[in-house]
Amino acid sequence: MILRRLYLYLVSAAALGLLAAGLSLLGATVLLFVFNDPSADSSRAQLAIFTAMTVVAAPVWAVHFWFARRFAMRDPFERASALRRLYLYFACLVTALVATQTLAYALAMALQPVLDNQQGSWLTAAQLGWATLVLVAIFAFHFWTAARDRAAVGEEGASATLRRWYMYIALLSGLLMMLTNTALLLQQSWAQLVVGTSTTAFPKGGVSVSALAFAAGPTIAGAVLWGFHARAIALRHLSDDRHSTLRALAGFIAVANAMVYALFGASQILYYGLARLLGVSDPGGAGTNVLAAVGAPGSLLLVWGVAWFLVSRRLARDAGTQEADRQAGVRRLYTNLAALVSLVVWAIGVGGLLWTLAEQLEAPIIGVQAHDWRDPVSLWVTLLVVGAGVWVAHWRPAPWAADRQSLSRKLYVWAALLGSILAVLGGGVGMLNSLLQQVFSAHPRLNDTNNLDFGHYLAVIVVAAGVGFYHWRVLRADAASRPPRAAVAPAPAAAAVAVVATPSAAKEAAPAAETLGPHARRYMLIVTDATDDDVHQALAELPPHASYKLTPTEQTVDGR
To answer: What local confidence, expressed as pLDDT, does residue 217 receive?
Structure first.
């Protein structure tokens, strides 16, 4: 049975790929003759091979998928099999992603005369449009077939997981594509407004002005991909997916991207502003036209900042009802990763600020000329402010017990300790090296610019030692808050208490539970006809110090 399914769906997938490629390329070649393209006559050999691909692949796919459908209509288990859903959802995912790309470039070609006052290639737009139609037709057929299968026999277990993989990969891809190109579209529009209308893709006035159509096309295509799957999930799958790990993972990947881009945009704007206030004419090589330069970071902050707020609200709503174990693990991983990255950012900012200040203080003492401090101070203060803000927003010194003892928090603390110790070692070597260079020199000089490294590396040591000392205290506090291990009962028979549905068993279990104390009781609860999410939701009201572990089994209490 499994080998038959594997054969039918493997052949169907291979033939479907060949059919999609053949139809798309055949239509693109035919359009060369329709548009009277000069290369049409030299494409007759290609017309033959693409026709052969289509004629051979179409019946092979049709026959094998017809047999697969026939077996599925006879047997509900066949229709609900994971191999059938794998084929259907894989076809949906691939065709959706490829169709999005072809639609993006087709729209870009069609929008060039409108947005950029350039003559677009209508032949290329038509060819890409034809390929999009072929892929959308294949996608629609397989999406409709999967929907009918779900309505007829339901979907759970591996089949539901495969559907989530397809939908949330497509959803995340469309969202990131839409947001990235929306920010690019705003940046290019702002640049053309400030610098002047131009269709060149080369820098003008320190700002690169590019074609708007090639940002608008992917924006629309990404919005279509994201909007379709977001609507499908909201209408049919929201209750099933709200506590799934893949939904949380996709959400936190989107939040992580939004956080990075939004904070980068905010830091660039703050850096430009501080540098100009301190009198720097060309901060970071952005050019003298700062109003035009802030278009890129401003668009990042606006687009990704809004996305950060909205996706974070959606994640909070999902976790507000009831958060499953794996979903909570994804949230902890994101929170501690964001705290670690922001810790590195603000530590670099503090270290760089002290580095610059130490140089300004040490240079007149030893009689050398210090470097200009205004531009680096603007950069270090920006990193300090942005990194510290994100770190404070994500870091909790004493969170809930489950979060405090999680693996991701331990990884964060130990990574911070490791990084601080390595920084202290490197700073110590650099500081001692600057001192010993003069000791071992044949002609030691106090007014040597290399002597400035003493203050530089001293600043690194101070910051790294502070970070390490703080996280060492956090490590000790987390260890002290860890609940003690339960004492082993002297009698093996009293090591566990089984809670069953019979009153007599409950009466017998009560004395044995009392022998273990109020904080060392262990229960075995057997639940039937419920999913993992149902059990998680039922046990959500346990006290913070309690824990449980789900072990699926096929047997009942009586062993049947």
So the answer is: 93
